[in-house]
Amino acid sequence: MPKSSDSDHKKTTVSAPERREELLAIAAQVFAAQGYNATTVRKIADAAGMLAGSLYYHFDSKESMLDEILSGFLDELWARYDAVLGAGLGPRETLEALVTESFREIDRHLDAVAIYQKESKHLGTQPHFAYLVESQQKFEKAWLGTLERGVAAKVFRPDLDVRLTYRFVRDTVWVAASWYRPGGRHSPEEIARQYLSMVLEGIALHDS
Amino acid sequence: MPKSSDSDHKKTTVSAPERREELLAIAAQVFAAQGYNATTVRKIADAAGMLAGSLYYHFDSKESMLDEILSGFLDELWARYDAVLGAGLGPRETLEALVTESFREIDRHLDAVAIYQKESKHLGTQPHFAYLVESQQKFEKAWLGTLERGVAAKVFRPDLDVRLTYRFVRDTVWVAASWYRPGGRHSPEEIARQYLSMVLEGIALHDS
Amino acid sequence: MPKSSDSDHKKTTVSAPERREELLAIAAQVFAAQGYNATTVRKIADAAGMLAGSLYYHFDSKESMLDEILSGFLDELWARYDAVLGAGLGPRETLEALVTESFREIDRHLDAVAIYQKESKHLGTQPHFAYLVESQQKFEKAWLGTLERGVAAKVFRPDLDVRLTYRFVRDTVWVAASWYRPGGRHSPEEIARQYLSMVLEGIALHDS
Amino acid sequence: MPKSSDSDHKKTTVSAPERREELLAIAAQVFAAQGYNATTVRKIADAAGMLAGSLYYHFDSKESMLDEILSGFLDELWARYDAVLGAGLGPRETLEALVTESFREIDRHLDAVAIYQKESKHLGTQPHFAYLVESQQKFEKAWLGTLERGVAAKVFRPDLDVRLTYRFVRDTVWVAASWYRPGGRHSPEEIARQYLSMVLEGIALHDS
DNA sequence: GATGAATGAGGCTTCATTCAT
DNA sequence: GATGAATGAAGCCTCATTCAT
User: Fold this and answer.
1) Lower CB density within 10 Å: C or N end of chain D?
2) Distance, CA of A114 to CA of D76 (rounded, Å)
3) Which interval of the chain is the signal sequence (chains A, B, C, D) (predicted)?
């Protein structure tokens, strides 16, 4: 879980919360579009209509912006996931709910998800971003557990390679952030439905 | 299709082809591991046991290495894809063959695929990398066409949103590059089989 | 001959030893003249006839230059001091030798001494420069011990406040770095003699 | 003599004199502890419990604070020195009085003295701080004159190198600002006595 | 084929300062 | 008297690239 209270940081980093949020949204957009490394602080500032140095009144560093974006996203994601996991649903319903919440999160935090997809892997090596790794482990446990429960309950096919399936499902969901556009043709729920239909029933037509 | 022959390069950049290949493989590895932007020429040189400047005897620029890696990968990929697409197979068999070839390509050119995944989107905007966009369009045509043929032939479900399905399938295949390790537990063919089984039949268990 | 032992250091920082020495001497001069903080990397580079960035081929950072200057100076100083302290001299002779060696060191490493004087106090708080504090403690022990030995041996006046005297003596010696010019009217040995005469005999004229 | 009245300052910079004094004392403390260059306006403001920008209501600039601190200190110092020099004392008594007043000044204005010690040399080059150089010249004249008078009057040893002695004495007195702590074991007068005893009589024990 | 040294552009960050409120 | 937000210059450092040897 990310940072909490911060007592004696150089820059108290408070400022009006709305302005911060605004700036973070802008930063997230640029990060998502160009990649974190390729994004210069000046590009963010340009997009915000200020000078590069002025960003440092609000944030400690370029990295701290990234940090705030990612941890904010994960915090919210886990609030939803935990609600689902604690609801006592069956494995199939859990899977459906997780997938649906995931697409909703993509809808809400598209940029953060896109950044997470592109950067989390190599960020995970930095101690400051250890929470990304932790989150990913919780993630794996939640999804793997659901699949295993489903196999045990004879809701999912017994011949599944659960780990492989987990990876397929996980990646396909999140990678949707690379093409999804909020307000487009499909609502997140619609995409979730289509996706679940494919994963659960397959795309082949069965003459039954 | 990408660059052809080095016609007007300042530095004739000949050097033994094997050494080039070696160095490209090293570069691809570092690019894949750290991202293109975050990879410094010095890191590549370090990994190759030489000094940064020395790389410029073999290559014109850092970008030209990336270019060579990506175009080499795409050239090979399309040779395989074209063979499949020209073989006169039915839609389901075509899908199976494309998926299988894709996983094989991941097995052979893991680093290139990983780089392609991470960088192709923003590289596509640069004129020099227009071939990435072209390739992606050919790609879409091949997969979409196969899916549509399958729906028409009543091999795939009639209620599929073909574009959505295309994206799901495409992403799931390629994103495997982020976790696949050559020489690991599963052969590419095995992964392809599992994956196709999921996509074609679904993961739900049906009491028939 | 490039990198040798250092396995994964970013910059192996070897380069021709003479060039390093040259550049360090230039840096020391500028640091001494303007103060470490007020010295910009560009000023050093200007003085060396190169661009600011080029310094980073030879050194890791501005601070590492300072570090190398100071530790080089202290290493040499302690070699001389240790020789004196291990020579088995009486307290007065020890004092004379320490003072003389100190002025010689000022003559040899004027800039380093000047920097040490101005910066060591606030640098000491940084963990990286802990050796400055250690050195200063060894220093104190050597001088204090000599004074105490002298009082016990009735070579120095019994009413001395030894700590106060230590500070006076120490400061007077080192502060000379702020006005001493090598090659000027007085040789280091001459200055040492005058200084010792004052400290040992006083400046008052006694009718004996 | 330093600046006089604020004639042409943009900001009339009046504010309650006590508040100014308070803020100047805080600034002096930080300047002394960290060095002028290394002291940011924000550090001063932090120490004063306000924001950096707010200081500009009271002062024109960071430099003007330094200026006021140093000129205030020198004004007071010279008031005392002039009193001593005009009192018609003999050379030895003059020396004793100057030393004593100096240590008293260190006691009263420790921070200003410390700043003066560290910064006056390189500040002297700036036209705005020319008064530092003037002061130093007056200083030299006063001390050198006293020593020379003493030699002529056979109060000090005839073999003294007067300039060297001047430097030794001057430096040792002022450098005490680097270790002196007001309210510590020794009063300024006590330190002066010890110091004068050492300088006048020497530390060697004479069997007479 | 490779090294060593340098260039020059550009990146992140700091900081004195300003100014409307 | 003070705050909050911003400016703009400057600082340290990185890095792709060049080139004489």
Assistant:
1) C
2) 66
3) none
DSSP annotation string for chain B: ----S--S-SS-----HHHHHHHHHHHHHHHHHH-TTT--HHHHHHHHTS-GGGHHHH-S-HHHHHHHHHHHHHHHHHHHHHHHHTS---HHHHHHHHHHHHHHHHHHSHHHHHHHHHHHHHHTTSGGGHHHHHHHHHHHHHHHHHHHHHHHTTSB-TT--HHHHHHHHHHHHHHGGGT--TTSSS-HHHHHHHHHHHHHH-SB----
Best C187, C203, C208 member to test D by mutation, with max D CBs in 10 Å, is: C203
C50 in contact with nucleic chain E (CB within 7 A): yes
* Residue B81 half-sphere exposure toward CB, CA atoms < 13 A: 19
> Which CATH superfamily is B13-60 part of?
Homeodomain-like (1.10.10.60)
Positions of strand E less than 7 angstroms from a protein CB: 1-20
Contact between chains at A200 and B203 (C-beta distance less than 8 A) = yes
In CATH terms, the fold of domain C62-201 is: Tetracycline Repressor; domain 2 (1.10.357)
Summarize the confidence of residues B41-46 as an average pLDDT: 97
- H/E run at residue D129: none
What is A63-201's CATH superfamily?
Tetracycline Repressor, domain 2 (1.10.357.10)
CA at B7, C1' at F20: how many angstroms apart? 26
Q: What is the CATH number of domain B64-201?
A: 1.10.357.10
Token code pair at residue B57: 């005897």
* Nearest nucleic acid nucleotide to D50, CA to C1' distance: F2
Give the architecture (CATH level 2) of D66-201: Orthogonal Bundle (1.10)
Neighbours of C161 (CB within 10 A): 18
Instruction: Note whether A152 contacts B: Cβ–Cβ < 8 A.
Output: no
Distance between A115 CA and the closest CA of chain B, angstroms: 11
pLDDT by residue, tens only, chain C of 208 residues: 333 333 333 334 455 778 999 999 999 999 999 999 999 999 999 999 999 999 999 999 999 999 999 999 999 999 999 999 999 999 999 999 999 999 999 999 999 999 999 999 899 999 999 999 999 999 999 999 999 999 999 999 999 999 999 998 898 889 899 899 999 989 999 999 999 999 999 888 776 5
Chains with 3 or more CB pairs under 8 A to chain D: C
Domain ranges of chain C: 62-201
What percent of chain A clears pLDDT 90, i.e. is strictly above it?
81
